[in-house]
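S.,

As promised, the PRP run. Input:
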Amino acid sequence: MSLAIALTKGRLEKKAVEMLEKSGYGVESLKDKGRALIFQDAKKDIRYFLAKPNDVITYVEHGVADIGIVGKDTLMEGSSGYYELLDLKTGICRFILAGMPDHNPLLMDGHIKIGSKYPNVTADYFHRLGKEVEIIKIDGSVELGPVLGLCDGIVDIMETGTTLRENGLKVFDTVCPISARVIANKVSFKMKRKEIDALIDDLKKAREEEC
Ligand code: PRP
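Predicted complex:
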């Protein structure tokens, strides 16, 4: 049976394609893709398509994609109507709490305001710390928040640390590590088990070679 795989556009895309190539899949067309969004594997009965992180989950939950490759950050923030099958151990970064160097939100007594693209992750983190928090949803360039005084700190993704450094922000805590994950539609996981197991085995081998 054929497989449809939703890949996350952008940051994770190159890493997922590299991993698939290393696993022996025919992903050449994805490396020189222009503006195309749908691709046929040159070696296997697999169709790939590129989608925004949250949409990868949507396509998998609705069964349009049997498999999705998406960051744990997106999975932690979103719904969970899928199976998470594998940690690819690529696209590694972490969720951090950051802010202005002399203003650690964790040391504040009063009302704490945190800006984030990830309100659920932020709420969960402060809940675990037993601290009340007001969360301000920001869609991008989150680092602006504390610099301009919108909030006391941010919960965001840090990969290289360059964005924080270049905007004069300091990391106060690590919320949790993040990496790329393989998820599966629940029905596909039953109906296409052989194909999905083969894909997971191939990806595991590629992952082990990398480590
Ligand atoms: C993410 C994140 C940080 C940055 C971290 O933003 O929100 O801003 O990357 O990466 P670094 O530690 O390597 O500097 P993204 O590039 O996705 O853009 P956005 O701010 O528009 O969401």
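The radius of gyration is 19 Å. The mean pLDDT is 96.

- D.
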